[in-house]
């Protein structure tokens, strides 16, 4: 049976570091690291995410400001709010919750955030810095995945990692971080041929395709480490249930270590968001 990589427990360790850094910045500089979260519309999943982010920020002693905007909010009004937050010295991190309603241009909004306050790590300048191996604010989910991997592997050098999914939010930055850790990285996606064989040769599989229980036991090399980024809602026995991109029960019989859904990558993403906010605050003091 695979070792369980407990995201809740690990996230609590990260949040303890965040709380210590918050205390230091308050005591040394009189600065309270503050995160501004902007939610447009009524997306239920986004509302849950935002509520959890705000709750964790307050628990860590951080400042947290919420902006809840109507679904009909215009591009101009949203851009104006972001500009206001960019210019507010009391705000150290800005998060515009995605997805946005269809009439709003996500790329335009992301590009309008000050890269120094872009705690999601999605701004083109932060993306480019990560790809070049330079200091940047790193996307939260891949950052959390790396912390989880290092619980299992002290040294990732030379490991063969397969990333399933090529999104800008997870897949591509995950590849960059694994390369920085000296892994050999293969990126697989919907057009990849014989994806099962690729995964079977991997020491590490990061599943981020957004397809429920796509990765099965016959995709996994015995003893491999599996990080499941997917969150998919299904109906089971008349109840709503969350499952990942990995068929957890059978894969956990083959893998050496595996992250669960829920309770794996999700809590790590929120913890890394707050970690990014403290890093942004410290850099803005320099």
UniProtKB/TrEMBL annotation:
Coiled coil: none annotated. SUPFAM superfamilies: Aminoacid dehydrogenase-like, N-terminal domain (SSF53223), NAD(P)-binding Rossmann-fold domains (SSF51735). It catalyses: (6R)-5,10-methenyltetrahydrofolate + H2O = (6R)-10-formyltetrahydrofolate + H(+); (6R)-5,10-methylene-5,6,7,8-tetrahydrofolate + NADP(+) = (6R)-5,10-methenyltetrahydrofolate + NADPH. Homodimer. This is Bifunctional protein FolD. It comes from the Bacteria. Belongs to the tetrahydrofolate dehydrogenase/cyclohydrolase family. The lineage of its organism: Bacteria, Pseudomonadati, Pseudomonadota, Gammaproteobacteria, Oceanospirillales. Pathway: One-carbon metabolism; tetrahydrofolate interconversion. Residues 5-120 form the Tetrahydrofolate dehydrogenase/cyclohydrolase catalytic domain. PROSITE patterns: THF_DHG_CYH_2 (PS00767). InterPro entries: Aminoacid_DH-like_N_sf (IPR046346), NAD(P)-bd_dom_sf (IPR036291), THF_DH/CycHdrlase (IPR000672), THF_DH/CycHdrlase_cat_dom (IPR020630), THF_DH/CycHdrlase_CS (IPR020867), THF_DH/CycHdrlase_NAD-bd_dom (IPR020631). NCBIfam families: PRK10792.1 (NF008058), PRK14186.1 (NF010783), PRK14188.1 (NF010785). Its EC number is 1.5.1.5, 3.5.4.9. Keywords: Amino-acid biosynthesis, Histidine biosynthesis, Hydrolase, Methionine biosynthesis, Multifunctional enzyme, NADP, One-carbon metabolism, Oxidoreductase, Purine biosynthesis. Catalyzes the oxidation of 5,10-methylenetetrahydrofolate to 5,10-methenyltetrahydrofolate and then the hydrolysis of 5,10-methenyltetrahydrofolate to 10-formyltetrahydrofolate.
